[in-house]
Structure formats: C-alpha cells, structure tokens
Amino acid sequence: MHINWNSRTPMAAFEDAELQTALAQFVSDATDDDLLAAFLHVSEGRLIDTAYEEIYAFKVQVETEHAHVCRFAADPLTPTGRDSSTANNRLRDAFALQLTHIRAAEEEVVEIWEGLSRLSSSELAARHHRSNRDSIPEMDRIGGIVREQSQVRRQLDDAVREHSEAMHDIALRDADFLAYMATNDSISKSEFDSMTPIEFEQATAALARRDGLIVTQYQGGARDLGADVVAHTLDGRKIVFQCKHRRHGGRRVGSQAIQTINGTARPVHKANIVIAITNTAFTEPAHDLAKNQDIHLVWGFDLIRWATWGMSLLEVLGLPEPDVWIA
Questions:
Q1: What percent of the chain has pLDDT over 70?
Q2: What is the pLDDT of residues 257-293, one digit of tens each?
Q3: CA 9 → CA 12, 13, 37, 310, distances in Å?
Q4: Given this model, what pLDDT does residue 277 score?
Q5: What is the C-alpha to C-alpha distance for residues 26 and 77, in angstroms, rounded to an integer?
Q6: How far, CA to CA in Å, does 326 sit from each of 18, 218, 233, 234?
Q7: Is the pLDDT assigned to residue 91 strictly greater than 60?
Q8: Which 3-state string (H, E, C) describes the chain?
Q9: Which residue of 86, 98, 99, 203 has the smallest Cβ count within 10 Å?
Q10: How confident is the prediction for the chain on average, in pLDDT?
Q11: Residues 191-234: tens digit of each pLDDT
C-alpha cells in the first residue's frame, strides 16, 4: 500500500497540541503495513460492533415477545383448556431456551470486543501479516455467532408456527364442543344433581352408548355385585361401572364403595376397565384405594368433559381408542 499524501482526508484535529503532534509523528513513522493493519483492526471493531447491535436488538425483541407469551392464559375449565395450556407452555419454553442462547451470544461478543481492544496496543502488523494463518480467530467466532443467531430465528419461527397451528386446531375443536353442548345429548352438572340414582345409572349407560360402546347392562339391581352398568369397547374390552349418585351437596363417596367394586369387577365380572362414577366427589381414602387397584374415578371435571362437552370416555380416561373392530 502507498500513502497518497494528496488525499482529501484530513488528519484528525485535537485541542491538545501534544496529542496532535504524536498522531502526526505516528503517521509519519508508520509503514504501509502498519497503516493497513490499523485500518483492518478498526474494520474488525466495526464488524464486531455491528454484530453486537444486531444481537442486542434481537435480544430485546425476543425478551418482549417472551414476556407477552408468558401472559398467555388458558381457562382450565373449558374443553380445550388443558391443550391450550400445553401449547402456551411449549411456546413459552421455546422462547426461554432461545433467549438463553441469545444472551450467551451477546456475552461472547462483548468478550471478543474486549479482547480486540487489548490488541490495540500490540503489534498489529504482525497479527495481520499473511504468514500468520491464525491471525483473526475473533472474526471467525463472530461469523459463527451470527450464523447461530440465524438458526435461533428459524427455531423461534418454527415454534410460533407450531403454536399457531395448535391454537387453530383448538379453536375448531372448541366450536365442536359448543355445538355439542347445544344438543339434547349434553348433560350438565345440575341435570345430574336432579336425577334419581336409577336415572343416573341410565344416563351413564346412555353416554356409553353415545360413545359407540356396546352396553349390555343399563342399570344395577339387588344382585348386581357392584356392577351397575356394563359395556364393551369395539375391540372387546369389558367396562364395569359402579354408579354412586348423591343429592346436590351430598356427602362424598368413601372407600367402601371402591372396596365393593374392587372385590367383584375383575374376579366376578371379568372386567378389563373398572370405573366408579359419581356426581359429587370421592374421599381421599377412596382416591388412594382406586389408584392402588387401577380403578378409574369419574367425577367433577372429568364428568363434565364426558357428559357435558361430549368427549369420549376413553379419551377422558387417557385410554386407547379401539384399533380392532368387531362385526
């Protein structure tokens, strides 16, 4: 490189005469390699500064969107409340994870900048000499960081798209639930409370039949041995229901009822799925015994999901739908 002393670029002006003199002397004494190295060093600083500004702006944007996502709320007492909550949590976690990567990238760029600043007082010409193959590892790191941020953007875009698709599906399902609730097949909690015990058993059988189950016993009797309603899935699984109806505000169903159905459902009735259902609630000992004996309890929110919103019984219980159909 050759210095064009006729260049229109003026020397920097300083009020301090000594500093002005020192700068002029540095330029006068500098070789072409010194000046080129200084130019490259300043250019590196500008590139790092640009990378930092972009990453910082990206971080602020993602922090703002993450705070917005954290305010997403789903009503747990709606048909799709749980699914909405799951979708929102997944999006929130995706933003939190990528935000961690962005902040780490920001810290790394600051570290590179500080390291470059310390090199300002070193022999820049030797650092940038063509024989020095490892002269610019800092810029390689900056390039890698910038490429990683592009990947972060893509992953956030994917997370937002997946959330949008999930919420669209949830909206369609909500419309189906609302349509079902407007039909005569939907049974509300207050309707259950106003039933007699026999009507409650018959309603349970009707709901099972609605789900496509084959009902072979619609209500219990004096010798039912704990089986009030009996139904079969289309792949042959036998379901035995014990129905416990209480007046509105009545006492909870205790463990004695669970002991009764547990003693007969599988040994006597050969049930594959055992269910105790009530319009009130179960005591804590009843819950403990049912969990220990693999007995499903249907009450409260699960009863609403099945009877009021029209979800299938197997979906409510988290059991597989039939994959083998019998004629």
A1: 81
A2: 999 999 999 999 999 999 999 999 999 999 999 999 9
A3: 9, 12, 18, 79
A4: 97
A5: 76
A6: 100, 21, 9, 6
A7: yes
A8: CCCCCCCCCCCCCCCCHHHHHHHHHHHHHCCHHHHHHHHHHHHHHHHHHHHHHHHHHHHHHHHHHHHHHHCCCCCCCCCCHHHHHHHHHHHHHHHHHHHHHHHHHHHHHHHHHHHHHHHCCCCHHHHCCCCCCCCCHHHHHHHHHHHHHHHHHHHHHHHHHHHHHHHHHHHHHHHHHHHHHCCCCCCCHHHHHCCCHHHHHHHHHHHHHHCCCEEEECCCCCCCCCCCEEEECCCCCEEEEEEECCCCCCCCECHHHHHHHHHHCCCCCCCCEEEEEECCCECHHHHHHHHHCCCEEECHHHHHHHHHCCCCHHHHHCCCCCCCCCC
A9: 86
A10: 86
A11: 999 999 999 999 999 999 999 999 999 887 767 787 999 999 99
More confident residue, 14 or 251: 251
Confidence of residue 1 (pLDDT cuts 50, 70, 90): very low
Alpha-carbon dihedral 320, 318, 177, 300, rounded to 10 degrees = 150
Structure tokens given for 119: 């090199």
- Greatest alpha-carbon pair distance for the chain in Å reads 114
- pLDDT of 54 > 80? The answer is yes
The token pair that represents 80 in the structure block:
């799709």
Residues found in the chain:
327
Q: Which two tokens stand for residue 72?
A: 């997403």
pTM value?
A: 0.66
